TrEMBL record:
GO terms for molecular function: fatty acyl-CoA hydrolase activity. GO terms for biological process: acyl-CoA metabolic process; fatty acid metabolic process. Residues 257-463 form the BAAT/Acyl-CoA thioester hydrolase C-terminal domain. The active site is at residues 284, 375, 410. This is Uncharacterized protein. Belongs to the C/M/P thioester hydrolase family. Residues 66-197 form the Acyl-CoA thioester hydrolase/bile acid-CoA amino acid N-acetyltransferase domain. It comes from the Eukaryota. SUPFAM superfamilies: alpha/beta-Hydrolases.
Amino acid sequence: MYITRHFRILRFNSIVCSRKSFHVFAKACGASIINKMLPANRAPIRMVAGCPRPLLSVEPTRGLVDEKLRIVVTNLNPMQEVTLHSLHHSEDMDMWEAFGHYVSDEHGSVSVAKDSSVGGTYTGVEPMALMWSLRPVPGSRTGLRLRKRDVLSPMIFHISVYNGHIAQGFNQLRPLVTVIIERWYMAPGVQRIDVREKGVQGTFFFPPGPGPFPCVLDMWGGGGGLVEYRAVLLASHGFAAFALEYLFLEEVKKVDGNYFEVAYQILQEHPMVIRDRIALLGLSFGGSVVLSMAANSSVIKPRCCVCISCSHATPVHSSLSEVYKGLNTLAYKARVENNQIIWRDIILPIPTDPAEKVDVGLIKCPILMIVGDDDQNWASLESAEDMIRMTEKAGNRHLLEVIIYPGTGHLIEPPYTPHHRASNFMVDGKEKVIMLWGGQTRLHSYAQEDSWEKILDFFNKHLCRASQQARL
């Protein structure tokens, strides 16, 4: 069981005290004395049930990034205007914020899960918008993307309440109350193991317990590098997971189907992995690798596959360098709008020649396709439609499940990850551009939450139900 802890403290200028000691202090001083101690630009505080300060409850204060938060403010004045603000200092040393404007009820309370925000970075009843509507603070560098690199440490957020409806200059104001929370990708007891074996590089994550566990081979896209946060989150939900690094700038000529087959065999041979319960998971180009290996490899026989924002029109028949050479010959189809690069036209129209795409009709395991209909980076929607036709022709349509999300872009990540419509991207590791990914913040965020639940259910169905499921 994942255990959360909740602490309540009251802050008064530089004083931090317990609830009991503050009641004693307030009773002894009286409201008039307390109000004289407030900054000149702060409204007087009305004594409410012996406590002059708002209380902020955020639960869990320590939890996984895909856990919903329960945020409640009490001890406000009735019908008081307040701003709830979330602040995060990223590993790249950038500041990210989200905020919503609320009006307390007749009891002086605000519940983010029930009450509507009337302004800010989001509006309406949105329990998790203080996470998914995060954006760089004004004056930040352009093209930022918030990603976790060190999964051994948490993401730390300051959740604060400000008097009035505030839209800027938060760092110049003193909040009424602040709670600091931790959001983890790695649950307690999850093991992280570096792998440098047989030329393969990556990271193993294992859930708590003796094992063995069903396993997911996780591959990201064309940005390259070792990306661990989705794999460790899968391990936090009971699956062994292997984050595979496969796009090495200096070694890309040597990476071909054999590299992925060796990685798959490493998983099969590990004593903590159930060798016949391995799934493949890929986003963007990683999804193309998944489809290619599942269709053509005599070694890789996954129990199921999940492909996010990918295409079968970029088959991996030889080395990755050859694949990229082929894509570079089509780069002239890319468009530029508002200084943002749109790549989706590169693979359009979807080829009719079977030799120019993965023959998905050869795949004999269940496939879950996650697609956003506003994907501006890759023609994932058109690819999914063509895959449906191909599997119908092959008699394998029952194996393919396609979920298309409206208003959703290319970067479909774990839930509550901030939406990035466009961000910096390195082309061939040399040229930095602003890549347009697509999506509308609210709808994209809904898709991330729903698709993650669908992915976990899919893996549970095909990897766990016929064996004892690993549990936290």
